[in-house]
Design a protein that fits this description.
The complex is a heterodimer of chains A (403) and B (198).
Chain A lengths: L4 E4 H11 L4 E4 L6 H12 L6 E4 L3 H13 L4 E5 L1 H6 L1 H9 L5 E6 L13 H5 L6 E4 L3 H18 L3 E6 L7 E4 L4 H7 L26 E2 L5 E2 L2 H30 L7 E4 L6 E5 L2 H15 L4 E6 L1 E3 L3 H7 L5 E6 L9 H10 L7 E6 L9 H13 L6 H4 L3 E2 L5
Helix pairs in contact in A: 1-2, 1-7, 3-5, 7-9, 8-9, 10-13, 11-12
Chain B lengths: L8 E8 L4 H14 L4 E6 L9 E9 L14 E4 L19 E5 L13 E5 L1 H7 L10 H10 L4 H11 L5 H14 L1 E4 L4 E2 L3
Parallel strand pairs in B: 1-4, 4-5, 5-6
Antiparallel strand pairs in B: 1-3, 2-3, 6-7, 7-8
Helix pairs in contact in B: 1-4, 2-5, 3-5, 4-5
The chains are: A alpha/beta (403), B alpha/beta (198).
Amino acid sequence: MSDAIIESGNVAAAMAVQLARAEVIAAYPITPQTPVTEKLSELITSGEMDAEYVAVESEHSAMAVCIGAASAGVRPFTATSSNGLLYMSEQLHWAAGARLPIVMCVVNRGIGAPWSVWNDHQDAISQRDAGWIQIFAKDHQEIVDSTLKAFRLAELTHIPVMVNYDGYYLSHTYMPFETPEPEQVDAFLPTFEYKHALNPERPESLNTVTLPDARRDVKSIQRGGYMDLRHNLHEEMRLAIKVWQEIDQEFQKVCGRGGAPIIDPYRCDDADFVVVAMGSLANQFRDVVDRLRDDGLKVGVLALQIYRPFPNSIIAEALQSAKHVMVYEKGLSYGYQGALYGDIKSALYPYPSRPCLHNFIVGLGGRGIPTESLFQTVKTACVQDEQMSPAQADEPRWIGLQL
Amino acid sequence: MQSIKDQMIQIRWHGRGGQGAITAAKVVAEAAFRSGYGGAVMAPTFGTERRGAPVTTSLKIAHNKIYDLSPITTPDIVVVLDYMILYEVDVTAGLKPGGWIILNSPLTVEKHLFPGYRTAVANATRLGVEAGLNKGIVNTGIIGAFGRASGLIDIDILTEAIAAEFAGRKPEENALAARLVYDATLMRDSTTGESTDA
């Protein structure tokens, strides 16, 4: 830890983007993301970072600039939060469909109305199906390492990557972390070379109106229709799980950190009860797990590090020996249940062992998540023997309501 | 304070928006980390702060990595950058029995006794001016009182961290302010009523 520093999560993200040698930064400020872009702007102004900062008038334009930069073969970066992410939504789908390797940090915040500047995961969850890879960081070290690895992932798969970290809990909190040396990053992350970079010497027709059926191009080569291109996006996104694991191994060789790119289990080996959560919430459960273990309960916590593509078989296999699984999340599919809970339930369906599932909704719009309430709700779920109908058991339970 | 050296130490900082409580807590986090505490987490209150309004920030220090980032509810120590805040906010809320209240105040320590707690008082406002700082700069001085009362981090490491944080902004004066306050801090133990200055 000799060269570790103490800084905020937003500064950690900016330092990773600087190390990644991003060449175009286009962003519009929004709380709690603002300090990331302020820091990048300072680094560029002082000459410590060789990039162009494009001040845009909206998040929609920020993503449009990133799309333009990536199309020209230049490494772009942006960051946003909450309604800013939603304002980008149309361009998010475009970036994914156009297969452009863009990296974006999403500093997770609740969505208005009513306005909230505080943390939850609804912004990222609402963009789940945009065709972006979604990574969740639990602490500052993971913000740095995931952001660096995200550039490699985006450029190998030609799929844009969103690195999520919790607003305030991580963005504005200071804690120690390490940054790799520039030479280490350069060895890990080669210069971005885009095969389809815009070039007047080599004209291409890209993303024009694409017919429902495949057709032959001017060179008589069979070209897919819309559905075929979308199928390929899906298939290559599924393969991205393996690519992300391989990238993590490469990163470990160069920087010495990593080893849990998909799931990060804590005391799960012999656990009868497993908590599943994403982001800093999963780390908060570690102390809860230790206390419950002291009480003689076999509890573990499994942090999910990547949400899309969903690592369904890896999660289902990790949960095969659990009797109960408690999914805690900071977002939901309104009118049904927690999005992560629904995904885990469906992942377990084809497997022989289907543990009892419990869904807890916590911390929306920054509602406090006292560690004591996590301890009590897990403990109650562990020891209760109450008979519930299947429909009752499948309902999400809201923790910390003040109705 | 030897007894709490083995566990997580929670420190709540009370100041006014713009007074530098967050910077002070960050400096102490740095100094704690440099002096061997592997865990140092500083989390400002998450809100819409206004200049002049009472604000708080949480600092957790431990020997191992800290995983729980939730705000402090039961501090071991509270540090108050402006004694007038005592009239607006209950700074003892959740404070553990026997915990420290560390105050910047022009009044004597006898005027700031809290039954069941320990108090450390110094006039960081006056000593800051003596150290060559502009009037009203108290966030570095109060770190000296924290160092003296808590005994958790050596004053030399604290002043080094101050000088590093304030590079280009009167680093030596800021470090001196902490040292002057360290020497001037008076302490009373209201769990027993004894002076602990010695």
